[in-house]
Each structure stands twice: as C-alpha cells, then as structure tokens.
Amino acid sequence: VLTPKNQKAIVRCKLLRNRHNFALFLYSGVCCAATAFYLHREGQLFNWNRLLCIPVEGTWLRPLSLSFTLSKLWEWGDTAFLVWLGSTPPQFLHKYHHATTFWLFCFATNLPAPEKLGMLLNGGVHTLMYWHYWKPWPKRLVPMITALQIIQLSICIYAWTVTPSECPAFKNVLTEHPAAFLTPYAMVPVFLWLFLVFFAKRFILRKPKKPMATSAPGESDSSSKTKTSVPLTKRAPDLRPIVAITDAPRRKRD
Length: 254
Fold this sequence. Notes:
With 254 residues, the chain is mainly alpha-helical. It is 73% helix and 0% strand. It is globular, with a radius of gyration of 24 Å.
C-alpha cells in the first residue's frame, strides 16, 4: 500500500530515505563520540577491567544508552526503504538482524561492558555505514564496514562471556539469571556467522565477469572455429540484452 506508485512519489521517497540515513549518521556519530569521551574521562577506555566491571547507573551514559536501544526501532526504517525502493527483497541477514537487534540491546544493558561497547563500537560502525548510505563510498572502501562489524560483534560477545569471571559483582549472573545471560547467544553468534558468510560471498569469492566471445579453457581448435564461424550479425542482437541485464544491477549496487 505504501509503495510509491509514480515517479514523483519515488523521488519523494528517495529524499526521505536520504534524510533518514543522514540523521542516523549524525546520531550514531554523537553516541560513539560521547561514549568515547565518557570512557576516557573515567579511565575506562584503555582499562579492560574497569570497562568490564563499572556499571553506568547514575551517570548520563544511562539515558544515552536508553536512547541508543530505542534507535534500533528507528533503524527498522532501513527495511521499509528497501521494500519500497529496492529491486529485490531484503536478504535474510538484513531481516534477522533488524528483527532481533532491539531485543538484543535490551539484554545488553544488564552487563556494563556490552552496554558501553554497544554505543562505542556499534555506534562507530553505524556512523560509517549510514555515511555510506547517505553518500556512497568508493567501492574499494566498502568491505571495511562489514569487516568492522564482524570485529565489533566478536569483541562484544567476548566481553559478555568473560564478565562473570572478571567482575565479582556479576559472578553469579549465570546461575541467578540464566535466561537473561544465555539469550544473546541466540543472536550475536548468528549475526557473526551471517556477516562472515556475506563478507566471503560478496568480497572474497565473488566471481569475475566471464568473457562473452572467448572459448572455454581446453576447447579444441575445431570447436572454437565452429563458434566463431557464426556471423556476427546473427549474434549481436543476443549479446546486447545480456550485457544490459548483467550490468544494470551492478551499477545499482555500487
């Protein structure tokens, strides 16, 4: 029902998407910078134990954390714009990630380090990501965003895992609150795996474009001659639409 039906509506929707991306770029940057400032001022930015164990209750970082958690609902707008303006449906990675991230951050506030690292690292990655969505980066730099997302997820799940053994105040969290402690393991490792697969498929295992008019390796000379003996006037109409079809989506992704 909300899908734009005409060119004017599409232009208006793209303008709204652009503003959405710019606003989240600014907001994520503010959250990342504010958290880094707080952690540096409190001597936690480069002190792993203090970062893990000192909670944020009673500080201005807690309302910032609450707003950051609520911003995960705001990010559902990404999915809406993909549905409205995208040429293909959102991938499973996108849908699962956006459907569960809000609930994950609700659990993350139970331990100090994931709460602070969420704003610092996730805020930093999302600053770069929404910057790219707003003003696309050069193609060679795009893999960096996914790589940083993978690193961020790895650090956060590690911090979550070691907190009970590193912080006496939280040593009984697994026995006292098993559901709250174990639930994030149903999300973050899944995110990590899906992002690794996505990164490998898109940036490492991506197949190069095959030449259109060359013979395959190992073909005999006779087969090559047979193929090239077809008049070009007969093949040209078939090649043009193939080039158009294969090139168009690539331009759109870039």
